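User: Here's a chain of 319 residues. Predict its fold as tokens.
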Amino acid sequence: MKKLITMALAATLIAMTSMPAEANLKPKTVTPTLAILDTALDTSIPSIKSRIVAEVCILDWPSCPNGKTFMEGPGSSVLPLNILSTSSFNHGTQMVSAALNANPNLNIVFVRIVGNTRAGAQQTYGINTLVNALTWVNNNKSKYNIVAVASSNATNAPVIKMKTADYCSPTKLDPVISTLNNSGIPVFFPSGNSGTNASMKDKIEWPACIKQSIAVGGVETLNLDQPQISLISNYDKNLVDLWGEVQLATIYPGNKPGFSYGTSVSVQAIAARYVQLKTVFPAYTSDQLITLMKSSSVQVPSINGQNVYLFNLLKAING
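Assistant: Prediction complete.
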């Protein structure tokens, strides 16, 4: 889901502390849960439906199913199938499916962050959207035992300063991510799919470039003798934290099987396995688990001398 961030023209910041307490799909769970921020979701797919513990819609526009900018409870993330199946909105279903491919025992809280016009087109979403969505996650982390966040969105504008070394401009999203980090909840973002763009050489996209976030790059593994860094994946030797598969088998709206490709997929694979490690090592802090993941990653050869290490789950569990 790679959209240029545009500040919403008709948006008003949601007062998260005054959001209505509406019905949720299931009571508080003790199983570690991943919060996924994305477009929309086909909750009728059996393999997905059984893993969803909550849905919420947080938008800059009054286009949640209830006609408002906020909705919590069953149906919050859903759109009619004719809209949900389009390239504008099928991404969320793909990403939840990718996460479940990597960790079938995952519990998921889905946060819809992209609104739709009556014609089914995407509405703009931006920094305000992410601030509100992650604030909701922080406010509800204990209720759903959320241990990580995966948001498969990236952009190189307007916060990337192309000609400076410290190219990731600070925004009001940074302290929200820090707050989640301080409570032991890492936020995973894709490094971006503009690796072939000369202007992005040795840069990753926003918000992955925020130092408090966990940036995930993509590695090609399908039908190869050995893994190799994806040509589309952005790279920064100082900011990319972990590397995951760039392609996985997924399910599309309408329960149609397929494949999904991009660092969006890598984010879901890594975040889902982080949750799995949290299940195996519940006493570990988030910092300890990220360190374990880095030390359990295997070097991927690169003709450009890049430091790329593909995470190996079995190595992390078995040592």
